[in-house]
Amino acid sequence: MRDEITIKRIQLMHPNLRNEVAEIYEEICKALTDKVGCRFAYTLRTMEEQDALYAIGRTKPGNKVTNARGGESMHNYGLALDIVLLIDKDGNGTYETASWNRAIDVDGDHISDWQEIVNIFKMYGWEWGGNWNTFPDYPHFQKSYGLSIKRLQKCPKIPGTNYPHNLSI
Fold first, then answer.
1. Angle at CA of residue 147, ends 131 and 157, nearest 5°
2. 59 lies in some domain
3. Do 64 and 82 contact (CB within 8 A), yes or no?
4. 82 falls within a domain
5. In-domain check, residue 164
6. What pTM did the predictor assign?
7. Cα distances (Å, whole numbers) of residue 61 to 34, 50, 53, 100
8. For 9-50, what is each residue's pLDDT tens digit?
9. Which of 74, 81, 130, 156 has its CB surrounded by the most CB atoms within 10 Å?
């Protein structure tokens, strides 16, 4: 299942990553059956959106969802995305149920659907937030090109954006 929302969100990624992310998404669609899909829930996130998420569990009600303020997330530079599974419970082609369950195997191939997605991203050299020790972020994938947040904050940007101008610096 190809999700139109995801296809639009891919276009928000850093220009150097868009084609690769589109390829990854095609691989994901091939790996999963029509009973389960994948949505890229977040790609590019503005500084204001990041600050609003950071406030949750601190100055706004709810559980903390991030330790990154605006400018401290790879999302702010178009280098990260978060996923969610979409489940078609009724078999009618309507994906109404979002799931962050990393163990389910809706497509029945004896590999969790989440792990299939993780494996595809890793095949392309992406870092998975689920491997982080201090604050695992299971829906998160990023490709930093070896650039730290401090470096990204200081590097020149593509005019009119927060995208780093040169990903090989």
1. 130
2. yes
3. no
4. yes
5. no
6. 0.92
7. 37, 16, 11, 21
8. 999 999 999 999 999 999 999 999 778 889 999 999 999 999
9. 81
